[in-house]
Amino acid sequence: MSEMRFGVVLCDLMRSGGTALVCAALLLGGCAGTGESTDVAAQRAGNAGTTTPGTGESQDGYEAKMREIAAAMDARRTEQATPRSVTAPGAAWDFTREQPREMAEQPRISAGSTEVTVEDPIPETPASRGVGEPAYVPTPSESQSRLVHELAGVLQRRIAEAQDVPMDLLVRLAALDAVEPGVFNTYFPEGRGGSALLTEDELAFLVQWRDMLESVRATADEGSSSVVRTLIERIDEGARELTELDDLRIRTALLCRRVEAIGRYDELDRYGDTYKMVAGASGGHRAIVYVEPFRFSNEPASRKGVPGYAVEIEQDLLLYRLDEQADMLAWQFLDQTVSEFSTVKRQDFFLTCVVNLPPTLSVGKYRLKVVLRDRHTGAVAEETINLEMVGNAAALRE
Predict the structure, then answer these.
(1) What is the tally of structural domains in the chain?
(2) Residue 258: inside a domain, yes or no?
(3) 76, 176, 252, 328: most buried, per Cβ within 10 A?
(4) Residues 291 and 392 in one domain
(5) Residue 262: phi, psi to the nearest 5?
(6) Same domain, 375 and 260
(7) What digits encode the pLDDT tens for the residues 115-153?
């Protein structure tokens, strides 16, 4: 048998996967090659009609046997079922046997589009899962956590790229704590670089905002029958705490004849935004200065052993005569201190001060400045009241 033909048939047998028949083919091929002359060309020329040494059979007989062996292998191959995952010709593979660990863990190759380190878990792919294993499906909680961290990372990058302090982005980042607690400190750690760009008040607001939303989330998770009422209380409490972060303000400043309670008063006649009085009145000009502060502090205190909160505010009143050159101080009433105690934090508060403006005030325009100071925080608020002294009562109707 020629060497080339023997090689072709042997390759066919190897692809067929028949171990025993391959061995038989090797034995026959080895016998056929025994005693071959090194002069291949001469041997091929005289092959026709000769016998193979050591077997007594002709060359044509050996080729016929090899064809019989190939035909038998084809018949055996068609009798064996091929797994769906095997597409190449050959015998069925046995996938029930567990592969060695060193064979199962193959090196990963990346083209550079994905950052991979040796600590990273192997990405979940059909090849790494193995044949027939279902793909891993994350739980809703895992998917939620992944999405929150992806959004937090995007906000963190936008915050880093911003020219000024991006409070709008920081408020969004802090709000993510209501979904995934700890996200704000992870992506914007307090006191470690990021918060250095914020003022003390801005950072306090963000922390208070985050804590309020976290409290709302925790309350909602409790799932009690009165959850809606409790949520309203939590939001109201959080809003009050956020309000206390702002500076002291004056909501209302008026001149009144009588004051009964907060929001209940009899205001002096006002013409537009200006109060008018007749100059030269012998008894002076009597009025009640009514002031409503807000965003004042409630400090823990006790009265006769009862715990509660105290509000302490100082008030100054200064009356200026308006002049083209410079305003002149015409009257003042300073250092009035009001201290109020309550067992609960006060949200509404008002001040009243009965004043008697001097009769020596001449005709002209004046401005009464009201100055409040929170004695606990040192915050200061100012407001002005416009006043005009006229020569006679007829001018009051103008």
Answers:
(1) 3
(2) yes
(3) 176
(4) yes
(5) -65, 125
(6) yes
(7) 444 444 545 555 555 556 678 888 998 899 999 999 999
